[in-house]
Automatic annotation (TrEMBL), chains A, B:
Residues 473-600 form the Acetyl-CoA dehydrogenase-like C-terminal domain. Residues 166-265 form the Acyl-CoA oxidase/dehydrogenase middle domain. Keywords: FAD, Flavoprotein, Oxidoreductase. Residues 43-160 form the Acyl-CoA dehydrogenase/oxidase N-terminal domain. This is Acyl-CoA dehydrogenase.
Length: 604, 604
């Protein structure tokens, strides 16, 4: 049977570092929106999340992986203990923790929420998935719905009585939302009759809460083709009947998809309106479905980034513990076979694998935390200018913060398997499960390829390159801080040079688009995202190194000194091992090498 | 239920290219050892392998993955159809196809066998695994056993009546064979009594053949500690009893390990001698167990390389077919939503993923084919000098040919999932299964980390760098051939420069070892293997480009012209996208950056 042993999931010391030393979340309490909060309050929330993750969510991770939801009599039956987890998470106030008191929330900063919920994700991605989806769905109605809709559909979700989903993808269209075919026919009562099929609907049904609201993209009869004809509808699985009871709303589970990971969260095919009686409520303006849905999609993209980071973190801590307790072999310079074997962690190459995992995990945490902070500032900073600036940075970094943890987290999780050797390849140990989970993160909420088009085609060139200019300023600020703190000059110089390279490359590539060569501009978008991510993580590591250096100069006890030394070394690792990849990548993109772009299909 | 559709597994045109155009396998028939063979004979063998793979092995791949072997009443029960596959493969003469007629074989060149059996592996890794292991075990007895042992134990394996395994790993020792504890006590009858436990024994039991011979590492009582005290024993699961019947030999299946891939081939924990009556036969000389076993390990390492390459090939062909039939989205420059969607393969980034898979698969095939050719020449070339030269190259390239396809094959298989989008993540489609299979290949028969120590610590510096010098000569020959054929000069220059860089780096790093700093020499062994592999694959791609260019100059029909164009483009892709990674990697290794090597455990 699966061997689940205690796992910290994330390092508490590290989360405190990101939140209070690197990002200074306490300073948010000086903004009016967060003036009711305090560092102590943030720490209480953190503590309740981490305890719930370790004591409740993680022990049920393996059982939920082993017994995925099944379809019986048209309804999905989830793991019998999932209901307890749901109630526990709603009691923590997670669904509307970031929303204002007016809708029952706690008004927590995104920054704090993001780093706190990382524990929940690391403990049990699937179980937390219901919360994340429900929060996003309710938030859409909060933002775009009218008062009646909020009362009828948002409130039960925020109260944890109902769950929510996002229903975008259709079987024939996949990622191409312009091809959504689900229809919405106006009815006399002011609602719409929905007809169509959706697929890959995560959490699309469950049996622990009384209803599920599907935030659904559909076309009102007569709407134009393409994305401009798409509207957003709230479509509950059960609607309020004439007698005030919930009655079926003609939404049917057509099938459960057999996923290789995230197995506790069902992914469903749904049919709407088989009986012509599926009622949908328009959310916001007709034809504005896609831009509105992007509120949820952007939230979901950052959530996927943290899902990936959290999974990589749990796998890293598992490998770190295993490498210290499992003895095997001897140092290269001491081959005396009668000497005692050493722990795995004594071998340089095992330490390399562990440091790489650490660099990916904590680099991702830093980037995700920073991006979340821009989310808070974009709404609540004390000047219009500061809000606009944060908003641009948030948009720019969203595809990076989604994709880097997903792509490199998969590599990190594979390294966790590798550290476990043959055991890592068996379901008697944990790493293989996290590896399976991780692969989904490069696909859902926009594949890595789509994120790369978003980054290079939209975000990096937004406002004539204004977002990228701001990014350059932020990086320059970090370089100056690092120099002042006494971080090794060569590392500071390397990041500064790479930043110049990134900015000039972007201008050159954007110039192709301006000259009308859109294909040429976007041909190497994946390589551009790789370059940008590598740079962004180097930036976050230099920032972390600067913070660590400052702390060491102020003086630190032995435990803290070791922690900061780890930050220094992981920063050096990333800047010396990964940052040098940027120059050849830039050269490749600049060359516009066309081996694949112009490859005839018959030549494959 | 799993959807298995026809899949070519490998491209027949491509296999013919490697075998007859790139490696000129026909010229082997001019050597005395292969004089009875002809190109037509090779093609017949190829054809029977590919037909068996497509018609018999592949259709049973999913069923065997879905119903892995179980332990019942102390015996392993494999998939009920596995026996048919075993008989089919023995009828093809696979177990001793490369062995001489004297032991019932066909005396086929390793080169031909390697590329032909790639189909079998691509069709069903697990089913072929029994053949590969049995062949390796029988070959050990053929090489090191006496006449009686050959008659008693080798012959039934070569005849396909029994199977064989390699039994090295023990639970407490893992990769550290110096710590093997299994004991062998001399008995009055000249055999030994074996006692101990082994783990991860692939194919360690089955119910389709009448016996299994475990080639087992153990220590004779009183033997010295470490590897020098290890001897090799043949330990059958059942031995010949006094009445000429097979009787149990006190080898017990202690457990079946639950693997995430290769699920058709059981991986077992075995206990020897629980009743004090496990008979083992010494193979070869006492104390020579490890060097002798290396014959089988080296064969197995190349087999794992081809396992990985074959799995990546099947996944690549699946993605290529899917990308042509699945329509989604529109070209970047034609966003008219009323236009028809285009096939996935029309998107540049999908073509990037496919070309990367092709470059990994066909680059690996080329390297594995070349390495196999050195295997043939090391035994059968017509001069002592040529044999010695081939032997050095074979040794040098074995860790590379094992590790590159395993590490990059995993990435390629992940790309196959990615091309399939959300569907790729489900067990309704094939790619996830190949992804699971692939992860084992970086672990078994020596992890990637161990291969990197073997490459840098032994092979690259063997004979004072003689093997590496020969490698440099071979690469230089390719560069000259490519220049003469008219391959773009920049590509030739790039490989030549990278070769100089590799050779000078190796000398510098080896110098550290000579100066007594073994840790410093081997600190970046994984990066060195990465660099070496990237270079070796660039070399094989330039060779392929040269062959393609020559063929195009001679004139080719439309189908062949497209095929050669694919070779050109894949070569350009690898040399322009991957080869530039070598310079920063060399700089990193040269710098001897010590972030992880000197990382204190408490700083993680």
């Amino acid at each position: 049977m699966p061997n689940t042993r205690p796992n910290p999931l994330l390092s508490d010391r590290d989360i405190a570092f990101h939140l209070f030393e690197e990002l200074d979340a306490e300073s948010l309490t000086r903004l009016p929106a967060f003036s009711a909060h305090s560092r102590e309050g943030f720490e209480l929330f953190l503590d309740s999340c981490r305890r719930f993750a370790r004591e409740q969510l993680f022990p049920l991770y393996r059982p939920m992986d082993a017994e995925p939801p099944v379809l019986r009599d048209g309804r999905v039956r989830v793991h019998p203990r999932m209901g307890d987890l749901w109630r526990g998470m709603t009691e923590l106030g997670l669904i509307n923790a970031m929303r204002p008191e007016a809708v029952g929330g706690q008004g927590l900063p995104v920054t704090v929420f993001t780093l706190a919920t990382a524990y929940l994700m690391a403990g049990n991605l699937s179980a937390y998935g219901y919360v994340g989806l429900t929060a996003g769905a309710a938030h859409l109605i909060e933002t775009f719905g009218d008062a009646a809709l909020k009362d009828a559909l948002m409130r039960p979700m925020y109260e944890g009585r109902w769950t929510g989903t996002m229903a975008l993808t259709e079987p024939q269209a996949g990622s191409s939302l312009a091809d959504v075919r689900t229809t919405a026919t106006p009815a006399a009562d002011g609602t719409y009759r929905i007809r169509g099929s959706k697929i890959f609907i995560s959490g699309g049904d469950q049996d622990f809460a009384e209803n599920t609201v599907h935030l659904t993209l559909a076309r009102i009869d007569g709407a134009p083709a393409g994305t401009k004809g798409i509207s957003l509808f709230a479509v509950p699985a059960r609607r309020l009947g004439p007698d005030g009871q919930l009655v079926p709303n003609d939404v049917h589970v057509a099938g459960v998809i057999h996923k290789i990971g995230w197995r506790g969260l069902p992914s469903l095919a749904l049919n709407y309106g088989e009986e012509g009686d599926c009622h949908g409520w328009l959310v916001g303006a007709a034809g504005r479905g896609l831009p509105q849905m992007f509120q949820m999609m952007n939230e979901a993209r950052l959530m996927v980034g943290m899902n990936a980071c959290a999974s990589a973190s749990a796998a890293y801590h598992e490998a770190l513990a295993y490498a210290q307790e499992r003895t095997q072999g001897r140092p290269l310079t001491s081959r005396d076979p009668s000497s005692a074997p050493v722990p795995l962690v004594a071998h340089a190459d095992v330490r390399r694998m562990l440091l790489r995992q650490k660099a990916i995990v904590e680099g991702s945490l830093s980037l995700l935390g920073y991006t979340a902070l821009q989310g808070d500032l974009s709404h609540h900073a004390d000047s219009e200018d500061a809000r606009a600036r944060a908003s641009l940075l948030l948009d720019l970094l969203t595809p990076v913060a989604k994709t880097f943890p997903s792509e490199k987290g998969f590599e990190a999780n594979a390294l966790s398997v590798q550290v476990h050797g043959g055991y890592g390849y068996t379901s008697e140990y944990m790493p293989e499960a996290w590896l399976r989970d991780q692969k989904l993160n490069t696909i859902h909420e926009g594949t890595s390829g789509i994120q790369s088009l978003d980054l290079l085609g939209r975000k990096a060139v937004a406002g004539g390159g204004e977002a990228l200019r701001l990014y350059g300023e932020e990086v320059a600020r970090t370089v100056e801080r690092a120099r002042a703190a006494g971080v090794e000059g060569a590392l500071c110089d390397a990041l500064a040079a790479a930043t110049d390279g990134l900015l000039s490359l972007t201008m050159e590539v954007a110039g192709r688009g301006l000259a009308g060569d859109v294909d040429g501009m976007l041909r190497h978008s994946s390589h551009y995202l790789d370059l940008f991510s590598t740079h962004a993580i180097a930036w976050r590591w230099l920032e972390q190194a600067a913070v660590a250096e400052e702390a060491l100069r102020r003086g630190a006890g032995a435990t803290d000194a070791a922690f900061y030394e780890g930050k220094r070394r992981a920063a050096a690792y990333w800047l010396r091992t990964e940052l040098p990849r940027c120059a050849p990548l830039a050269q490749l993109i600049r060359s516009n090498e066309d081996s694949y772009a112009a490859m005839p299909v018959e030549a494959f």
